[in-house]
Amino acid sequence: MRIHHLALGSPDPERLAIFYRQAFGLKELATHRHSGGAIRSIWLDLDGIVLMIESSETIRPYVHGPDSGWFLTAFAIRPEEREVFEQRLAALDCPVEGRTDWTSYFRDPDGNRIAVSYYPVGARRNPA
What we know:
By secondary structure, the chain is an alpha/beta fold. It has two domains: 1-57, Signal recognition particle alu RNA binding heterodimer, srp9/1, CATH 3.30.720; 71-128, 2,3-Dihydroxybiphenyl 1,2-Dioxygenase, domain 1, CATH 3.10.180. The chain is 17% helix and 34% strand. It contains two helices and eight strands; from the N terminus they run βαββββαβββ. The strands form two sheets. Strands 1-4-3-2 form a four-stranded mixed sheet, with helices on one face. Strands 5-8-7-6 form a four-stranded mixed sheet, covered by helices on one side. Strand 3 (39-46) and strand 4 form a beta hairpin.
């Protein structure tokens, strides 16, 4: 099983798509427009997974309580790329808001929490 697509709602999908293209080098797959020409969604390639940035006017907002819902999207990097991404994101007005040994955390222009991480998949912090 693998993820087919992820969707982010945004009041300005074009601005958010530009950010993800500049920050992570994602390629645009498609732009979908309303009949009047306004952008409905922009689809970006996340290494075979589609990141759909949808106009928040076209989706029903999800009202949630504390600690519910999707709260982080982490991009896999190599250890030697960490500083490069921290500098690149800072230049895009997204300074580091937190760090662990393997992961750096940021907020995208819409306030969504994102990260770059090289934490080894399957590693356990507290082995039994």
